[in-house]
Amino acid sequence: KNQVEQSPQSLIILEGKNCTLQCNYTVSPFSNLRWYKQDTGRGPVSLTIMTFSENTKSNGRYTATLDADTKQSSLHITASQLSDSASYICVVSSLNAGNNRKLIWGLGTSLAVNP
Amino acid sequence: DAGITQSPRHKVTETGTPVTLRCHQTENHRYMYWYRQDPGHGLRLIHYSYGVKDTDKGEVSDGYSVSRSKTEDFLLTLESATSSQTSVYFCAISALAGGPDTQYFGPGTRLTVL
Question: How would you list the strands of the sheet with B73-78, edge to edge?
């Protein structure tokens, strides 16, 4: 069964600290993995997209890693800011032989950055 | 929100009434999607469209229908709303169906069915 599991479920850190969010998946065939940020009351916004051949991708203070062998990804946030408080969602895309994409969404990690 | 608007943003309705949610885009993207988001579940795809008048079912399509008569508009209809359809509904658009493209999401519609 295709699944995406994220940990921790929630996290509280102090402003300025770093943190790492985890995503483990059992999706086949694998096409790509995305991280989205969702602020409360808003739609998700894409942070990074990684294909099978990419193992690191950065977007400002956000750095995503992908280990396709172990089927794990992480999202590292450096020097956290209050505006980083949000839910971070891992999404894995599977592309079948008919070129039809299926997205498997994780439940997200709720991050709170406190002053 | 990448040129995507949803209307209404909030709606309260009663069980058994029909409800239509509208998604409007100004990006001229080919693909449009309707998702629902509920606590304890990841975003779940209801229906999607790959062109004008071309639509297909997602994983939770029962009780929902869609229509796309113009590139820019994608309508989601609940024929007879039930309390289990209380949720936040998101519309998304993308330029490509395959490959590492990105879906852009609208601001969401919070629907409450009493």
Answer: B4-7, B19-25, B73-78, B64-70
Q: Mean pLDDT throughout B86-108?
A: 83
Q: A6: closest CA among A63, A58, A75, A68? A: A75
Instruction: Report whether pLDDT(B1) > 60.
Output: no
Structure tokens given for A38:
């969702």
**Per-residue pLDDT, A28:** 87
Q: From the list B1, B98, B102, which residue is nearest A99 (CB)? A: B98
Residue B44 to chain A, least CA–CA distance (Å): 8
Whole-Å CA distances, B113 to B11, B24, B45, B81:
8, 23, 20, 7
pLDDT band at A91 (very low <50, low <70, confident <90, very high): very high
**Chain A CB contacts of B106 below 8 Å:** 43
Identify the three-state secondary structure at position B34: strand
d(CA A86, CA B9): 20
User: Among B87, B91, B103, which would you mutate to test the A interface (most chain A Cβ atoms within 10 Å of its Cβ)?
Assistant: B103
A37 touches chain B (CB under 8 A): no
Which tokens hold the place of B30? 């080919």
Q: Which residue of B has its CA nearest to A32?
A: B100
